Amino acid sequence: MPSQFTRLAERDRRPVSLTIDGTPAAALEGDTLLTAILTNRRRVRANEFDQGPRAGFCLMGACQDCWVLMTGGERVRACTTFVAEGMAVMTGIKP
Ligand code: FES
Fold first, then answer.
1. Class of 15-90 per CATH?
2. Other beta carbons less than 10 A from residue 8's beta carbon
3. For a pocket test of ligand 1, which of 38, 59, 68, 81 has the largest count of ligand atoms closer than 8 A to its C-beta?
4. Angle at 39 between CA 66 and CA 20, to 5 degrees
5. Which has the least CB within 10 A, 8, 52, 80, 81?
6. pTM of the full predicted structure?
7. Which residue from 84, 88, 43, 39 is spatially nearest to 66, judged by alpha carbons?
């Protein structure tokens, strides 16, 4: 699956494993969840009204465009949440 972001630097940070919609994915320690999702996929979530693609907007916690759901039911802003080992996020987007 093509990604929205391409990692150009800092590739030597420790790997972190997570799942995105149940699919195993890789990130690096220190990535935000938004970075982790967009280095693996084209979208962060689907718009709740028309299912249009959303990839965040401000990337700094101001616009509220990057809310995603963790499998435990917690709703988090992807751009202000650091990725953690074993994290399981649901974007609602069908691959
Ligand atoms: S991208 Fe704007 S709050 Fe996350």
1. alpha beta
2. 6
3. 59
4. 65
5. 8
6. 0.92
7. 43
